[in-house]
Amino acid sequence: MNNSEAQSVGLRDRRPDALGDLRVLTDELICTLLEYLTPRDVARLACVSSVMYILCNEEPLWMSLCLHRVNGPLQYKGSWKKTTLHLYASHSKFVLFPVAHLLPAGYNSWFLYRRWYRCYTTLDGFNFDDGNVERKKDPSLEEFRHEYDGKKPVLLTGLVDTWPARHTWTTEYLLQNYGDTKFKISQRSSRKTLMKFKDYVSYMKLQHDEDPLYIFDDKFGEHAQGLLNDYSVHHLFQEDFFDVLDRDQRPPFRWLIIGPERSGASWHVDPALTSAWNTLLCGRKRWALYPPGRVPLGVTVHVNDEDGDVNIESPTSLQWWLDFYPLLPDEDKPIECTQLPGETIFVPSGWWHCVLNLETTIAVTQNFVNSRNFEFVCLDMAPGYHHKGVCRAGFLALDGGNFDDLKENISYAEDDLSYSDLTRKEKRVRILKPGEDPNNGTATSIISKKYNLWKEGFSYDINFLAMFLDKERDHYNFPWSSGNCMGQREMREWLYKLWIGKPGMRELIWKGACLTLDAGRWSECMVQISAFHNLPSPTEVERFPVGTGSNPVYLVADCAIKIFVEGGVEASFYGLGTELEFYSLLHEANSPLRNHIPEVLASGILYLENGSYKIVPWDGSRVPDVIAKCNLLPEKCKVDGFPFGVWGKKQYEYRKAGMSIHESISSARFKRIWPYIVTKRCKGKIFAQLRDGVLQGDVLNLASFLGEQLRNLHLLPHPPCSVPNFSDIEHQLENGCMEAIPYKSSIPIEWDIFIRTLTRMKKDVSGRLSKWGDPIPSTLIAKVDEYIPEDLTKFLYVFEDGNEPSKVCKPFSWIHSDIMDDNIHMEPYGDRSYSNGSTIDTHLVDNGSVNGFHKYVEGKLWRPSHILDFSNLSLGDPILDLIPMYLDVFRGDPCLFKRFLESYKLPLVKSLSHQNSVEGGDRFKRLSYHAMCYSILHEENILGAIFGLWAELRGAESWEEVELAVWGELNNYKGFP
Description:
Blueprint: H1 3-8, H2 15-19, H3 27-34, H4 39-45, H5 50-56, H6 59-67, H7 80-90, H8 110-120, E1 135-137, H9 141-147, E2 154-157, H10 165-168, H11 171-178, E3 182-186, E4 193-196, H12 197-206, E5 214-217, H13 220-223, E6 254-259, E7 264-268, E8 275-282, E9 285-290, E10 300-303, E11 310-313, H14 317-324, E12 335-339, E13 344-347, E14 352-357, E15 361-368, H15 374-381, H16 386-393, H17 400-407, H18 441-447, H19 462-466, H20 488-501, H21 506-516, H22 519-532, E16 553-556, E17 559-563, H23 569-588, E18 600-609, E19 612-617, H24 625-628, H25 646-656, H26 661-666, E20 673-680, E21 685-686, H27 687-690, H28 696-715, H29 726-735, H30 749-762, H31 765-772, H32 778-781, H33 784-787, E22 798-801, E23 804-808, E24 813-815, E25 824-831, E26 860-867, E27 874-876, H34 879-889, H35 894-904, H36 927-937, H37 942-949, H38 959-967
Parallel strand pairs: 1-2
Antiparallel strand pairs: 2-13, 3-4, 3-5, 5-6, 6-15, 7-14, 8-13, 8-15, 9-12, 9-14, 10-11, 16-17, 17-20, 18-19, 18-20, 21-25, 22-23, 24-27, 25-26
Helix pairs in contact: 6-7, 15-21, 23-25, 25-30, 28-35, 34-36, 34-37, 36-38
Protein name: JmjC domain-containing protein
Cofactor: Fe(2+)
Keywords: Iron, Metal-binding, Nucleus, Oxidoreductase
């Protein structure tokens, strides 16, 4: 009975008095808020009143508290409260003891009752028919592609009869052979939880959870390699464009799935609009599916209009079937089926699906990209947000005005299965109130209302969906959705490998690259530049950008063309201007580094004016009219020398630090101006292509080479400081509605702007790390502000020298900022000799195969020749250059790092005699502390790389533990003053 019924029989409603001011909140909201407390605080709050006692002893609450705090393998102790208290006691000297349950009269909750029912119901008595998904026995590849692929789901039989897994994958078999193997658990938390299989089986037998834990492990092939031998991919699904990537490069694509009755997967669309097959080996699954663009009842799609990330709010699969499915009229029900052991279901790209396990099930699934869904995957990766929302939510993703404009330009498809869902106002489903009759007129009018946008012309067609792509957003220039299944660098590499490795499919690949890379625009620009400088016309292969960098790069004949687009027009001009100023100084100083940098052949500015392209040569030392018209230079900036050189860039970086992504790109959004540079093409290969085949001796030589060349770079003189009075910059920031940093310093001006920029980046460091999320531990994110010092000038070892201005013991240097494996060029210098004295017959030096890409040729020796891509040049602490090199090139190998330092031979602190005068304690004397703080403050997700390489540090208790494990070698380095 509910509270009103309790009052009718003479029981006093305890809720108002027991909750006090919290009585205005619903039970559901209170339970949600309790999840943000610590276990200790929840235990204390349970003592406040009888109602709070009930709410604070709910098992789903303690399940959430446990899963958000567990580190390491999880062992279920019979209840989630006991499990949480066991974990809590192991990390604390205080012990919390569970107490007996109380059931006070006078308080009843419809919300808690419904949740209790979901926890304890069984599915034996539910009537599930075979469903209406077509069943097909072992179709031919031609029939599958013609009838189903990219069109509709199908249940396939007879595909896996010969798999060993078909007969061996049972709970008993897995328990016997993999009982101690740890598998990843799916849960509603960003944390990754592991359980030994024997502990998971014990959990399945004891649990009564409304959303039981579910083994959903994409790394099972690494933990239990024998399982990969028990099945094979059927010939219907052999085409997979991700196959061109190495195993550690491709995004997650295969999963072992094990779950008890009532568990399942809530409503979702598979990542990146990939297609999937799912084979059931044990138990029964109930599937519900909707065509693309039709959002299921009870589901809300959120699309971030800044980076296009898509988040879905959905009830659990059991809750949806119990609470929402009965409210649907027959014409609105999903496509359904019950999957039996040995059957494989195919889910096409973009289809919504929800799965409920009717009993304990074991299954294996894989997602794939083939010629049918490739363009959809590329579209999903593209920057922007309208198209992502439309792909998942149909016309619900559009504002009213946009939809009205669209209706005039679309054709209606009466028989198209790809229809949309409710109107925007109907997107959130009203949950029935306690005691409300689901069959009354109000509820019926809401639930059974016709989905009047189903037939409004929505079509899951690539040309139709591409209409919603924001044409002003390109792959290089705008934020990448954190929900994408691969990063920007990985996406560029994947498309390039497809372009080279699948020449017969280049027309399709080009279409996908135009959606994601904006490849057509950059290719057109490259053709204009080639023609202006009398370069040979690009071949078909050469019209595709190479590499994984942040700017389009083309290899045409013996030249490399780089178009500056990263960060927008302003950032592009500072990027090229600084690079040209650097080359000028490099030649003036006659530095040995010039022998290991590609020769500059030309540079200029390409722009679009009145529909035609024009080019102005530019060496960075003046201000052409096309730049002057952009009003990018501050009024007081001198126009002689290099107006867009490194000091102008430092001011720009300071202004940009702390801005939101939208603020930092908005000023350059509609400009059609692109700086570019043409350099001599290097022979050989980049280190990223050779990494797995290069001998250890050659890699050690590379470490020594990098030490020598970074020494040459850091010894190069930099131009005199030309930074104006900071009061002018702060005034500009205040006028632009940006908060200036309250900061005063007497340190030299060149260090002043460096520290000010770091201070701006420090402002919301915890928010930035939280946004990046896994694998950065949340426990460390909470401690980051206390780890990073308030006064960042302490990194500089500032000291007073009599009446002289303050001096800094740190060297102030040019820094490359981007020493990574794709910016290091290697050349072959000989053949490997084998023990019998024979050699492999290979040419000493070649130009590689098409466009500089081919697989590693065994038998060659490689040596480093050039360092590439100086577009990210800056000035500052040379320690910054060690971070990307150590993490990306050396992959955290301390032996290579030590070899580098032995060759570098420069002090990272000018004078050690003043260290004792540094305030703040011994941590500032540790160079490892400097490197760790720089890693945290870096604008790129450096921490993601650190916790990826050192997975064991995800359980670290402090930043000091991470610091010493990663950067401890620096503390042994004294340099050679």
